[in-house]
Structure formats: structure tokens, C-alpha cells
Amino acid sequence: MSSHPHSTPQRPHIEVGKPPAGRMLSSIARRVTQWRAGQLINSALKLAGEPSLVLDLPCAADGLWPLLSTSDSRVVIAAEANAEQLTAALAGLHAVFSRRVHPLQTSLFAIDLGANAVDCIFSMYGLHHIDDPRRRMLVLREFNRVTRDCVIISVWVDGNLQAVRQTPLSRRNGQVHARAQIEREFTAAGFHISGHRDFMPGLAMQRLYVLRKLS
């Protein structure tokens, strides 16, 4: 494991039932995924202008806070509706980041912060499973209210090999969004699309959008 100050300590994970070679391949795949996620997040933060105060909503114990905290001057508000999940996520946080990560128990649909409270909202999971456009619009408008400047948001979009392989049920359940539709929703919620970053262009359906709040 790297000794770089921004690396995330990981507990050894043993996959029961897999031979050693299979566990090794799974471990390599996880490391590659984490490395690529780090690339995307850093690139999106640069496109967003390296915001100083970031709201991570909903957050999770998945190693993203060290990636969000690569700037020593950046403060992260880690927000989650479920108190137990929030406590568990904070428990796994390395001490080097604890002074710059502050917890907030709040809902995705009614954020317990004032207008223009943060520079940027980072949402890796907020829209992935919201299939109702009206509920998505509630979230996006709440993001527009709380952010002063921008939003970095992850969406699973169509137009790639992974999306083509999804089942019709997955598409109906909102797991895969039509790019044209979701981009219209961003605009209707009061955002301009500054750009996007694809996990694997043409192959994977995960895309990070950087949205600017319209004045």
C-alpha cells in the first residue's frame, strides 16, 4: 500500500470460495477501479475550479473523502440521511483527514443548510436509483439552492457498451439514464453543463458531470 498522504488505508478483503488467482484478479480490478475513480474526481474538481468547501451527499465509507481532500485548504461536509451509515463511514476515516471532514445528518431532498452554503456539491450516488423525473428534479433544485457555484454529479448514462448490456428492467428502474433527458433536467434545474468525465469512454456507463449554477 502506498505511503502517500492521500492514500486510503484498506483492510484486507478475503473472497471466500475463490481460488488465489481469482482473488488476485479481483484485487487488481478493485485497485484499477479506485485509481480510475481518483483520476475522474481530480479532473472534475479541477474543472470545477478546485472548490474550497464541498458537500459530499450522500456519502459512504468508500475512500472518496481522501480523494476530495487532496487540497490542504479544502473542507468536506460528509452528509448522509442514515445516522448509522454516517457513523460507520466516519469510523473508517484516517486521522490525517479527520480535521477537514465534518459530518452532517440530512436528507438528499431537504438539505439542512442555507442557500449558497457551499462552493460545490459532490454527489456520487444521489441520482443512480431515482427513476422518477419529478424526484430527480427535487434533488437537483435542492442542489441548486445549497451550492454557491457548482455541482459534480455521477450518473449512469446510455450510449455505451455497458448500458447496452443492461436489462430492460434495469433501464426502467432508473439505473441507466438517457443522456439527452438527464441533461435537459440539469438545464431545467438551473445549471449549465461545464463538462463531463467518463469512467471508460464508449465502454462504461458511469459519467461525472460538472454543472455550473446559473446566476
UniProtKB/TrEMBL annotation:
GO terms for biological process: methylation. Residues 74-148 form the Methyltransferase type domain. It holds the Pfam family Methyltransf_11. It is an enzyme of class 2 (transferase). Keywords: Methyltransferase, Transferase. Its EC number is 2.1.-.-. One of its GO terms (molecular function) is methyltransferase activity. Residues 1-21 are annotated as: Disordered. InterPro entries: Methyltransf_11, SAM-dependent_MTases_sf. Residues 1-10 have a biased composition (Polar residues). This is Class I SAM-dependent methyltransferase. It comes from Pseudomonas spirodelae. The lineage of its organism: Bacteria, Pseudomonadati, Pseudomonadota, Gammaproteobacteria, Pseudomonadales.
